Amino acid sequence: RFSLNPIPPSAGQSVKHSHDKIPITLPALLQSTRRKMAGVNSLDAVKRKIKVLQQQADEAGEKAEILQRQVEEEKSAREQAEAEVASLNRRIQLVEEELDRAQERLATALQKLEEAEKAADESERGMKVIENRALKDEEKMELQEIQLKEAKHIAEEADRKYEEVARKLVIVEGELERTEERAELAEAKCAELEEELKNVTNNLKSLEAQAEKYSQKEDKYEEEIKILTDKLKEAETRAEFAERSVAKLEKTIDDLEDELYAQKLKYKAISEELDHALNDMTSM
């Protein structure tokens, strides 16, 4: 315990302990008390600051976890987009290869059709020669009529097969995966037509060698020739339709390329968004 005694003028202002007589001045006591109070206030401030820092650290940790999850989600989305783009690229490549093969088959078929038309023109010229050189042989005319019916039948069969090829070309628009098989079928049909045209040519040559009395039925043969010419023109029209079908297939390829470009833009946007998220996380 400390006791405060009156300050005698002779001893100066001092305070003595009641037991050991050690003097303590009043200003020193007040200063010591202030230091103790200041220490208590400083400790509370430090505790409050530590608590605030802990809260900030917890918030920063939660934010870091959220950002980490976002980064993982963005990464997964980017990988999925890359897989979709790769799959689309493979699909476009396959379609392009199939279209190239179909175009090659179609070009070959058109070339053979052109050759068949030339052969038909030659046959028509041969028949005109027959008209000019024909004589009036009734017995051989009957044979010519039979052969002409056979030629007409062959032409009708060729027309039917051309219609079948045209229908198959229309179906190609919706069935690209079967284009090669149908092109092979068209090629086989063209080969058959070539063989049949050869037979027609041989028959016409036989008619040329045998015809002597052709003038009596000249009008009838002119009508038959006109029918055959019309059928050849129809074949040319079908060939033009086949070319338009190929143009439609090319437009389909263009649409697929546009879709690929859109997927690439989507992938670029996702990559930029992920880069921004990574930069934000790094800046923290």
From TrEMBL:
InterPro entries: Tropomyosin. It comes from the Eukaryota. The keyword Coiled coil applies. The keyword Coiled coil applies. Gene3D superfamilies: 1.20.5.170. Pfam families: Tropomyosin. Transmembrane segments: none annotated. Its main location: cytoplasm. Residues 43-273 form a coiled coil. Belongs to the tropomyosin family. This is Tropomyosin alpha-1 chain. It comes from Denticeps clupeoides. The gene is TPM3.
